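Morning F.,

Quick status update on the modeling queue. The single chain you submitted on Monday has been processed. Sequence for confirmation:
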Amino acid sequence: MKRVLIIGATSAIASATARLWALQGASFFLVGRTDSSLEKLKSELQTLGAAEIQKTELDLTELDQHEALITKIFEIFSPLDVVLIAHGTLGDQQASEKDFSLALSQLNINATSVMSLATYIAQHLSKQGYGTLAAISSVAGDRGRKSNYVYGTAKGALNIFLEGLRHRLHSSNVRVLTIKPGLVDTPMTAHLQKGTLWAAPNTVAKDIVKAVERGKDEIYSPWFWKLIMLVIKHLPQFVYKRTNL
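Structure tokens below.
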């Protein structure tokens, strides 16, 4: 029976993933920003078959609260098999181009806060001697694009951080999974026009569950984004600068 900590549990991808684990009878510790949303998700997971559910409310931008939060969770809910960090915001690229305080806010929520949590989680999983730390990043972190380079910068930094953490924890039998979704139809992207490349949260959730089970290091979801980003990453600068990505 899996014991799962989900941070940012009420986000669309996280909650879809939690539902799949609930069907397997997993136990959960849920962390999110609003208690009412957590309570709604808790009830749903119980209906689906979750064995045990605990929850706590926290604004994840409060970095000074992270160490105490993670220590408390590992004291009352360990051992943990899987930790999924899934919070983040898309932000306003054009506004961030004019006001760096807005860009800094995006960097803090999408990169710094995740790195902070992962640092404390890694310490406990290392002592435990096993487990998987998974974090949702994005294909946006693979190359800077004019349409979302502030968000992409945060995710690119997170990708490097997770890769280094994976390298460090390998000898501790702790796995680190970097999840790179492409375009996903969630409340965060509700304002964007949808097309053929868009995926449902449940599609990404299935990929996450499978990747955790198989001990993967990194996944693109859906799979075809790996090919798309391979092309984008290898475009020479003189060509790339003329694209409208």
